[in-house]
Structures are given as C-alpha cells and as structure tokens.
Design goal:
Blueprint (H helix, E strand, L loop, with lengths): L1 H43 L2 H6 L9 H10 L9 H10 L4 H13 L2 H10 L2 H26 L3 H24 L2 E4 L2 E4 L8 E2 L5 E2 L11 E6 L6 E6 L20 H8 L7 H37 L2 H7 L4 H11 L6 H13 L4 H13 L2 H10 L2 H29 L3 H4 L9 H23 L9
Antiparallel strand pairs: 1-2, 3-4, 5-6
Helix pairs in contact: 1-6, 1-10, 1-18, 3-5, 3-7, 4-5, 5-7, 5-14, 6-7, 6-13, 7-14, 7-16, 10-13, 10-18, 12-14, 12-16, 13-14, 14-16, 15-16
Length: 455
C-alpha cells in the first residue's frame, strides 16, 4: 500500500508542474502586455499629479472619485499601496479618498485585467474593474459622510491650511505676486518695497506683499492667529527692465512659465529606458513571487481536485459565496495571482459569481491592510472598510451570476476563449521570455532593496 503511494508521488508532482506550466503559457502574453502598459503609465503619470487631485480641496465626493480612478490602473504592489495611501493622507487627503485609493489600487491593474481576459473571459475582464471602482467609491463616500474627520484632525487641517497660506505668500513674492486672501495682483518686478504706477509715483505695497530679500520672513495667516517663519534666498531675480507686469493674471503668464520651467526634464530616451526598466525589471520582480505561487496553486487545483468536489460544495449558492469571502478577507494574495486560482475553480464547476467574490475580497483586504486602516484611519473606518468590501463582493457575485444567466453565456464554454486568439507558438515564446524576467526579478528583490509583495 505504501509502495503505491510513494510510486504515485512523482506522477502527482509531474502532473501539477505540467498543469502549472500550461496556465503560465496561457497567461504570459497578457502579463507582458500588462507590464508594458504599467511602465508607460509609470512614466507619463507622475505621482505629484495624482496627489494633486486627491487633496481636501477637491471635496468629500469628488476626491473619493478621483482617488478611485487614480488607483485603478496604478501598478502599485500590495505592500506599496499602504505607504502610498498614508502619504496621500498626510498630504491632506481626507479619510474617504485615502480609503478609496487603498481599495481600488491593489484590486486591479493593467496586468491583472489582462490576465483576467486571458484566463477567464471578456465579460469578467470588464466587470472586474467596474465592480472595483464601485466598491472603492462607495466605501470612500460612506467614510466621509458617516465618519468624517475627527476634531483633532480637523484642527490640524486648519493649521496646515494656515501654513500653506504662508508658503503660497512666500512663493508668490518670488514671482512678483501680491497675495490678498484667495486673490493675487501683479507687483513690481524689482520686488522692492514700492510698486511703480503709471504716473511714475510710488505707492506703498499691499499689506500682504513681502519684499524679496534674503533672511527670514515672518508670515501671518489672514486671521493673524498663525505665524510662520520661513527662510528664503532670492532665486528669481527681477527682469532687467524692471517692468511692473510680472505677477499673475494675463500679464504674468510668461513669468510663471519661467518659474515652472525650473523642473528637470528627461529626454525621450531616458523616458523609454525608465519605462522598460520599470515594466520588465522592477514590476516583474514585485509580482513574480506571488504570481508563480498563485499559478502553482492553480496547477494543484486543476490537477488534483476533482470537479465533483467543487460542484458539490462550492457551486454557486449564497453559502458558497460566504465561504469564499471568509477565505479571501484575511488571505494575502495579489490581484494577478488570484486570477489563475479563480479560473481553475471556475473550470472545476464553481460559478463565476462565487469566484468573483474571491477575486474582489482577496486582493482588497488582508491582515496587514486592515491593521493599517485601523491604526491610521481609526477602528470605525476599519470596520466600514471590511464591511463595504464584504457587501460589495457578495452583491457583485450575485449580479455577475445573474448576468451570465440573463445573457445565456455558459462560462465553461467561454472560459479562456481569449487564449485561442494567439497561436500556441507565440504564447510559448512569451512564456520563455517572461520566465527568466520573473526569476531575475525575484533574485534582484531578494538581494536588493524594496518590497517583495505584489500588486
């Protein structure tokens, strides 16, 4: 008896490895495509621009929508989204925007959408980001409206606004702008203590205008309650002709452009190299470990678990969705690695809606993110975070099953239909190209710096 068991082990291992390799070959072209898109986004969309639209000035609802849209395509790994979200929070994003970004970013990316299309079908590939977007927006708006900012945070926010006013005043002085409330007016280019007038006479500058001199500026908020001290060194000199039109409005456009052009610009060649490095060296390293583990688990499911077991216990009823929800919430798995697992379960007889509960809840939550939300946003936000994701996952699963039924689509017939678009030789070539990139990425991460988790 024991001899039969040991003799079957090599057959079991080889069967699992063959199944895993077949899944990897099917996924490889779409993973490489996703990496390329992620690299382009990384170069074209700087982090500063993203943060600019997530601040409190965007409003409680608009900031949440902006955060969800910004996080949806971002190639941030699961460990990377936590410091990124906390950074956005510290820069002035409200609770809802932070929560929305934290939910939308790890659930989907260009790579996970591509592999969903490859291993499942177009309907699932379209439904997945839409459900993610709805979940992130709902959670963010609920947090802003039901919980909001605590008094301590709100007080701090007011102080930060006062400090920001002071910084704006100082910067506006450098470019020759007088600040008064939320408006500004042009002042003399010589940045002196007097403003030239058309009659040639001098008049004292506006009370909020600060002369451009080296030293320390004492800047007060409009209420006079907040005082900031800022050391400055003149970096922009007056124009040679000392013309009085260099502030804001139409007359100041040239001067402001000169100020903004101080940023370092990269050449096209440098951008391309950065895109390629991120897409095919850094990003594969981030997801390689968990991607390969996910594919191996998918191979185990495909080869070792009988279809009757899945059909009997995890078919498509409500209890099956609850089981997948309980499994997915604490599990640490990335969006890309969860896809082959879900595809293999669907192939064994699980309903697409039940599999989608796992696809939504798994990447969105884990013990680390729940802990961080409770620590930085509060326990109430953490409860709302898990609760909204759970409700949306179950609701999306029920809706997806209804869509397949209503449209008359047999998921077993469409499963992997996108795979047939590419010849086997091309898919094999992509797999041979991708595997060393992922192995090198793992080696580089283990012997270098950065996080080792995945998107």
């Amino acid at each position: 008896m024991s001899t039969d068991i040991f003799s079957s082990i090599p057959e079991l291992i080889s069967g699992i490895l063959i199944s895993s390799w077949e899944i990897f070959v099917e996924a490889a072209p779409y993973l490489i495509f996703g990496f390329a898109i992620a690299g382009i986004l990384n170069v074209l969309v700087p982090d500063q621009k993203i943060v600019e639209y997530l601040g409190t000035s965007a409003g409680k609802i608009r900031s949440v929508i902006n955060a969800a849209l910004a996080g949806l395509p971002l190639p941030l790994c699961s460990c990377g989204v936590i410091p990124a979200a906390m950074s956005i929070r510290k820069r002035g994003a409200n609770r809802g925007a932070t929560l929305s970004f934290l939910i939308s970013t790890p659930q989907t990316g260009m790579d996970s959408i591509s592999i969903t299309y490859a291993l499942l079908d177009p309907l699932m590939a379209v439904f997945r980001p839409l459900a993610t977007l709805a979940t992130a927006i709902l959670a963010g708006i609920a947090d802003n409206l039901l919980i909001g900012e605590d008094p301590e945070k709100s007080g701090k926010s007011e102080n930060e606004k006062a400090g920001k006013k002071a910084e704006i005043l100082a910067v506006s002085t450098l470019v020759g702008v007088s600040v008064s409330g939320d408006k500004c007016s042009p002042v003399s280019c010589n940045c002196g203590t007097h403003e030239a007038t058309e009659t040639g006479k001098e008049k004292h500058p506006d009370k909020n205008t600060v002369p451009l001199k080296s030293g320390t500026l004492e800047l007060k908020s409009e209420t006079g309650r907040e005082t900031s001290h800022l050391k400055i060194t003149p970096a922009i000199h007056a124009s040679e002709n000392n013309t009085p039109s260099c502030g804001c409005g139409h007359c100041g456009e040239g001067k402001r452009e000169q100020f903004s052009d101080k940023r370092v610009k990269k050449s096209i060649k440098e951008d391309i190299l950065e895109c390629l490095k991120y897409a095919f060296i850094e990003l594969p390293g981030e997801i390689a470990k968990w991607m390969l583990i996910g594919i191996l688990l998918a191979g185990i499911i495909s080869y070792a678990i009988p279809e009757t077991l899945v059909q009997e216990y995890l078919g498509g009823d409500f209890s099956s969705m609850l089981v997948m929800l309980v499994i997915g919430i604490p599990l640490y798995i990335c969006a890309t690695a969860s896809t082959p697992l879900a595809a293999s379960l669907v192939a064994k007889g699980m309903s697409p809606g039940t599999a989608f509960v796992f696809l939504l809840a798994g990447p969105a939550t884990n013990a680390a993110t729940i802990t961080m939300v409770a620590r930085f946003l509060g326990k109430r936000s953490a409860v709302l975070y898990v609760g909204v994701i759970s409700l949306c996952a179950i609701g999306a699963g029920i809706l997806l099953d209804w869509l397949y039924f209503k449209l008359g689509i047999s998921v077993t017939a469409t499963l992997g239909s996108a795979e047939e678009m590419l010849p086997e030789s091309i898919k094999l070539g992509f797999a041979v190209l991708l595997l060393p990139l992922m192995l090198y990425g793992i080696f580089r991460r283990n012997h270098g710096r950065g996080c080792t988790e995945c998107h």
